[in-house]
Predict the structure.
Amino acid sequence: MYILGIETSCDETSVSIVKDGYLVLSNVISSQISKHAVYGGVVPELAAREHLTALIPVTNQAFKEADISLKDIEALAVTNGPGLIPALLVGLSFAKGICTEHKLPLLGVNHFIAHIYAAFLNESNKLLANADSYPVMALVVSGGHTALVLIDKDKTAKIIGTTIDDAAGEALDKGAKILNLGYPGGPVIDKLSESGNRNAYHFPRSLTGGAGKPLAEENIFNFSFSGLKTALLYHIDKIKLENFKEHTLLDTVASYQYAVIDVLCIKTIRACRKFKCSSVVLCGGVAQNSLLRTELESRIPKNVKFILTPKEFCGDNAAMIAGLGFHYLNCKEKDIEIDAFSRLPEITQIPFVPDI
Ligand code: KG4
Ligand code: ZN
């Protein structure tokens, strides 16, 4: 079965064709980053206009690469939240138009859950049916989310920790903005950090319990990154931005990035041990970070499987939407009236775990 996936929740227009919920035949992504960079962040109305221009050529390209036509498609899966409402509405309206004209079922897909599903596309899909993979601890790290999700083989899902302020990607993007490194900051910080000393300066590891104070029960698995920005501002003030030598900048960037990554690893390992998990999934845009990928893998207990999302499926993409849509086919109403939503709803069930 071929499903057409459409993703327009933020600043990437993506269209994908996925077979049987896991085999990615095409995954075309058109990034608007250069359009938003001048503003230092994503402008929702501009994002919506850009999606409008990009959707038709991106869709045509997706069909060309998959080498099939619209008559082969059996359902449409579209991101309907969480995300920027004006941006979501463009993808949603486009999908509704196709579904009405071609009498196809329309599936509204949750973008946050889709980021987790991205780890199970293509050949990794077989891990889902393996009872030994569970319980799974998923670390979802993107520009909008930072959360630990516990998934069990009975399809239950529980967000056991989330950020109480900024997301990890947001912390990297805002840090880069303070240091005039451009937007989005995550990839720039990743690259520059390779040439810096990550232990040169100490930035805070909030909510890790390292400050001599006991951690409140509710924050054991929660994250907080907003204090890091303030620490960076104090650090710059102390050194004075104009006195920054090249190595000062590189060491600052590497130390700042390491503070984010260290916290993500500490909390994930802590959660993995506490819930006796058999696998850890790393997913979301920040999962492209080279140090996070190697550092988390090196810290995971040897008897725990590390399921690393391929880089091509970490950032926003429609393959994860089409893939997850397949699992919504039997458990959701295929309603042409579906609406967009901006915030993450409570998650208690994961539809993609098979009956095992
Ligand atoms: O998942 P995503 O594409 O969009 C959201 O759903 O938010 O994630 C975007 C985030 C941005 O904050 C960006 O800076 C970050 O992912 N990012 C990275 C890297 N590539 C993208 N962060 C760290 N290292 C990278 N290589
Ligand atoms: Zn995303």
Q: What stands out?
A: The mean pLDDT is 95.
